[in-house]
Please model this.
Amino acid sequence: MLREAKNVVEISGYLSEMDIEPKNYTKNGATVEAIGGTIKVRVVQSLGGNDKPTVLEVPVHMFSGKYTKSGAINPSYKNIKELSENAVSIAAAGGENGADWVCIKGARLGMNEYYTQDGRLVSFPRIQASFVTRTHKNGDSQAVFRIEMMVVSKTEEVDREGNETGRIKVIGAVPMYGGKVDAISFYTGSPRVAEAISQYWDNGKTYTAVGRLNFSAKTEKTQVPSDFGEVMVTERTVNVSEALITGGSQTPLDEVNEFQVADIQAGLAERKARLEADRAKQAAKATETKVDLSFGTGTNDFGF
Model:
């Protein structure tokens, strides 16, 4: 079986928001008690270049069944429940003063992907964690990752107007638990890193990368032409969810530790089939509500 990639996310900062509640789901005909939801951690960090520190609101998804296979209370369930009952967020305290400082280790970076009824693929990185520790503030806040991936592609990033941004977009195939493979989009955090990746990384090879998470918001201004007088300027807030590579291995992993292309192709084919099934399901729902949909497909050598 395809081994799970080393995939570690560490986050520390003030607990910003919390939305956790009891849940139930059905497994083998029985109702299973669980708990889950999302917290946000406020992190202030540089994003890898010579940029000034950016204020981030990093969402972390948490979920756990109540019992283990042996019938004991699941430690992660206990941790999440205790957090939901006792932790104080910035939102609840009215500011950082009085809010809890939290530390998350052993979280994972993956993708949340699904189709909407109008045929759009929604795809963005998601952090999944099982444990959160409330602690005293010790050092600066951070949201960092270390991950193994097979490079599927690397391209120059372009903006909405088709202009190159100077960053490189790397699509990395990351084997997850149970043989599932996620296709995660990474971006370079500095020109120096972009140059190194362009020079040293090859498609189909396995590398280790370290980086920083960027969950932030930015304002984009657009000029709207007018027939006379002043030009109208419109603004919109864009939420950013991306993983920035700030360093990594120059040479690929050795033959013992590298991922095999055939295994990655199979995993990406399973991902594509899963998304196609979801698209068909959403199309069927849209047809029921008399929504006209059309779709396009694309492939590459890795079948995704």
